[in-house]
Known about the structure:
It is a single chain. The protein has five helices and eight strands. The chain is of the alpha+beta class. The protein has a six-stranded antiparallel sheet. Strands 2-6 form a two-stranded antiparallel ribbon. The model has no long low-confidence stretch (mean pLDDT 94).
Amino acid sequence: xxxxxxxxxxxxxxxxxxxxxxxxxxxxxxxxxxxxxxxxxxxxxxxxxxxxxxxxxxxxxxxxxxxxxxxxxxxxxxxxxxxxxxxxxxxxxxxxxxxxxxxxxxxxxxxxxxxxxxxxxxxxxxxxxxxxxxx
Length: 135
């Protein structure tokens, strides 16, 4: 399970250090793609396959075609380098409007990467709404 919130930076080559607590779970590679909202999502290879099967089940051929054309071409396989970093593809960085300062969050079965200011504004909105979360 991925938990926690970490502030990181992206270097001028598009590399970002993965939080140490997440690295072990990504040692067999991962998939990065467009997330829900203005972020990127990273799934372990095993979870990517499970999630993919869940999301494609029961779709008509036209729905499936559109889904596949939206999700798979923009996704990329990523691996940790020797220093625990991954390269964030330029097109995905542009999609999520990621510059240098980012927030990396664990969201149960995946990791999300947000522009730090966007993440802070999102959290402030959630706090103001008071969601009635039982924890």
